[in-house]
Amino acid sequence: MKFLVYSLLLFHFSSFVESSKCTDCIASGKHWCVTVNECGFSPCVTSVSKPLNCPELPDKAHAYDDNFVRTKIVPMTAAANNVNPEKCFKSRIPTMSISKTFSTNCSEVGPQSNCFGFTSFDTTQKVLVMSFRGTDSPLQLTDEILDFFTGKKQFFPDAGNIFTYFYDAFFFLWNAGLQQDIRQLKYKYPDYELWVVGHSLGGAIASVAASYVVHTGLFTGDKVKLVTMGQPRTGDYDYATWHDKTFPYSFRIVHHKDIVPHIPPQEGADKLFHHRTEVWYNNNMTTTDPYHICAEADGLYCSNRQLDTDIPDHLTYFGVFFPDWHFTC
């Protein structure tokens, strides 16, 4: 047991030292060669040129827990596909209660496009929840894709830029009653932790939501757990940098060949960039399947190293086919 603890401490210390060396290397104008863990080594099979891609793992106090995600996060994420989310909790998280649901048009122009989310609370676990539904129609998906070509909108003065559609979608929900309800829940349960979850579009909205309530001082970053599944790239490099400095517990789960985490593409002068930390299940996500905690933020590693992508893998996470959750939970 002592050897195991020592090994874990040594591993995290080594990870910290390696990340520091990598950051210093890039600051000096060179690249960090991941293949041999050396600065400026050439030729290099896999190199890092951005500080956020320097190898770094979450600290032990904020480690990823597969069982926690399966038993707590998955039901709350999938429940956003049901207009009556509380129905999904009864057999899975019976201590969780719905506070309110929010449904609103989140398309600024063109045909109506609906966004949906809910808040809930659990007095046993001392937790508040914000959960957001993913893209629910081909029309909404088209709207998101077309919006990519219109650029991004400034988010916070010190936190980079957010993809316009995700930015607007959050604020449509925020102004549709989410703001008032989460403030009331915070007032009633001031010491509770906040869990923010979402799948697909919902994952992007969850990222914005968590960032906004912390940026405005409603919660502190250490009191928030952000877990998303199949999240598309949500903001630029500056946003990812701010996010990683703010949230000690933040995981983006990617299923096998899911195509959505690779869009919008990293193109243009102001590229979109994922924040940490990716958890990649390069399998069917059964209870016995392994997973990989990616030490890099958004380089050619983990799920990004695959050339093949898949839509069905986006719709199913941990054995749950999210579009059918409306009928099956």
From TrEMBL:
InterPro entries: AB_hydrolase_fold, Fungal_lipase-type. This is Fungal lipase-type domain-containing protein. CDD domains: Lipase_3. It comes from Caenorhabditis elegans. One of its GO terms (biological process) is lipid metabolic process. Keywords: Signal. Pfam families: Lipase_3. Residues 1-19 form the signal peptide. Residues 129-266 form the Fungal lipase-type domain.
